[in-house]
Design brief:
The protein has about 260 residues and is α+β, with helices and mostly antiparallel strands. It has helices spanning about 5-10, 10-15, 20-30, 35-50, 60-75, 85-105, 115-130, 145-150, 240-255, and strands spanning about 140, 175-180, 185-195, 195-205, 210-220, 220-230, 230-235. Bound molecules: zinc ion.
């Protein structure tokens, strides 16, 4: 079995959706392939952390409605003989297409209060944020420990992002991942607030000095950006704007 085939079936294996012979084939590969076994362990750990903290993500109603619409319009639904895994993956492809369509149509509706570059960044970050909420995409290093997440970025990205502990303020750390944004690999630190995820992106700032938090919204998602220590940070979430501002104020105060 090839690694690609194995990795595309890991979520279905975790969910117990595979036929017995398929599951055995995956398990055989996992026993001999450290890379796939590691990915399987990470996937399981992310699931465990998210469910333990009762932070199961629910898509906003608008997005759900649009995804349902896209699924209903699809010309050839999967035939009954297909495995549930195939149905699941087909559904996810539709969902990903819808998410990217929403993200790219968003630019039409915003007022000209920020620079073109800022809107372009927001578009990319919105697509990345929505992608991150699909199963298995949220974290590369699932952990509630800042001393685990911060060193994980060493050697993976070219800057060391702030990873403050905001547990007491009600924003538990969920983990970190490396993401590809604006033509470079950037660190993303993930926090939670109830069922809402907050992705905090960081990259080297083009301007020196600091800048106080500034915000924009689109499609029910909120963005807050600020500069500190030569790094530009963006927090992205579907959390309400007031709580996202409170989160950023505490993040800034803590690092
Ligand atoms: Zn493998």
């Amino acid at each position: 079995m090839l690694c690609d085939a194995c990795q595309s079936a890991l979520e279905a294996r975790l969910d117990g959706e595979l036929a017995a012979d398929e599951a055995r084939e995956i398990d055989r590969h996992l026993a001999t392939c450290p890379a796939c076994a590691r990915q399987f362990a990470t996937l399981g750990e992310t699931r465990r952390l998210v469910s333990e903290n009762a932070m199961r993500y629910t898509a906003p109603d608008v997005l759900k409605a649009r995804i349902r619409g896209a699924v209903a319009r699809a010309a050839t639904p999967p035939v009954a003989a297909d495995t549930r895994r195939k149905t699941f993956r087909w559904w996810r492809e539709v969902a990903a297409g819808v998410a990217i369509a929403i993200a790219s149509s968003a630019v039409t509706f915003v007022a000209a209060r920020h620079s073109e570059a800022t809107y372009a960044a927001a578009d990319e970050l919105l697509a990345s944020h929505i992608r991150s909420l699909m199963p298995g995409h949220l974290t590369d290093v699932p952990s509630t420990e800042q001393h685990t997440v911060k060193p994980w970025f060493n050697g993976r990205v070219d800057l060391s992002p702030a990873v403050p502990n905001l547990d007491k303020a009600g924003f538990p750390l969920v983990g970190g991942r490396a993401d590809y944004i604006r033509g470079r690999v950037v660190p993303v630190v993930v926090y939670a607030r109830r069922r809402h995820m907050i992705n905090v992106y960081a990259w080297p700032s083009s301007s020196p000095g600091g800048a106080p938090p500034n915000d924009l919204s689109r499609n029910g998602y909120h963005f807050v950006m600020w500069r500190s220590g030569g790094i530009e940070y963006w927090a992205v979430s579907d959390l309400n704007a007031a709580e996202l501002h409170a989160f950023v104020a505490m993040f800034v105060a803590a690092h």
